[in-house]
Amino acid sequence: SAVISQKPSRDICQRGTSLTIQCQVDSQVTMMFWYRQQPGQSLTLIATANQGSEATYESGFVIDKFPISRPNLTFSTLTVSNMSPEDSSIYLCSVGGGSTDTQYFGPGTRLTVL
Amino acid sequence: KNEVEQSPQNLTAQEGEFITINCSYSVGISALHWLQQHPGGGIVSLFMLSSGKKKHGRLIATINIQEKHSSLHITASHPRDSAVYICAVRSEGGGADGLTFGKGTHLIIQP
Fold first, then answer.
1. Which distant-in-sequence residues (6+ apart) come within 8 Å of B89 by Cβ?
2. Distance from CA of B26 to the nearest CA of A (A)
3. Torsions phi, psi of A85, nearest 5?
4. In chain A, which residues have their Cβ closer than 8 Å to the Cβ of B86?
5. How many CB atoms within 10 Å of residue A61?
């Protein structure tokens, strides 16, 4: 199993600012995923972060808006840049991949942009 | 891209009832996950299926690969089962890809 922690757990930010969300896993993992859950919606994949390579972004998400770092096999950050109220969401990191892996989720970061 | 549909969207039942939540998807998959999300956002993995049936306590999950359909059953439901249940799939050949999620089923079990 994997235990995932995220910081911060929640934040209220002003329009135009940036917030960096940290994700820490208690074991080494190859793939880490960042998801967004907008109010009342299900989860949407933002990007996949593999250590030692550039993150792979899903359609509709770009590196300039959501830069990701993956400095080692237990840690990743997601930055939400130049925020607008539309970025108000829960952001979750997740690990686990391949056809035989259980998926584990962090507790989420609840972001409100004013 | 896989399309994941869940039904019902909302379900209210009395304690003790047998609950069924359905999930269908459009493209072949390597795995299907059933997840539980409680108020406050925490997500817990209940099952991962690639074929057949799995049981854990009062929860049973089945999948029919040919029909691209899965069901989650809860026997002897209890108010603590109240949560959002989410079906998510990993498409075939998508070992390095994230999951595609259904919109979830909001379940309320009344005492």
1. B2, B4, B25, B29, B31, B32, B33, B99, B100
2. 17
3. -55, -25
4. 42-43
5. 16
How confident is residue B55, by pLDDT bands cut at 50, 70 and 90? very high
> What is the predicted pLDDT for the residue at B94?
54
Q: From CA A73, how far away is CA A92, in angstroms rounded? A: 17
CA B63/CA A107 separation, integer angstroms:
28
d(CA B105, CA A15): 33
Where does the pLDDT of residue A100 fall: very low under 50, low under 70, confident under 90, or very high at 90 and above?
Answer: low
Count of pairs with CB atoms under 8 A, one residue in A, one in B: 66
Closest-CA distance, B86 to chain A, in angstroms, reads 8
pLDDT at B34 over 60: yes
Cβ contact (<8 Å) for A45 and B104?
no
- pLDDT 10s digits, A1-27: 789 999 999 999 999 999 999 999 999
Nearest to A102 among B30, B48, B86 (CB): B48
- Token pair for B30: 């390597």
- Is some CB atom of chain A closer than 8 A to the CB atom of B75? no
**Pairwise CB contact (< 8 Å): A42 & B104:** yes
In this complex, the residue of A97, A100, A108 whose CB is nearest that of residue B41 is A108
A79-83, B94-98, B99-103: which range is least confident on average?
B94-98
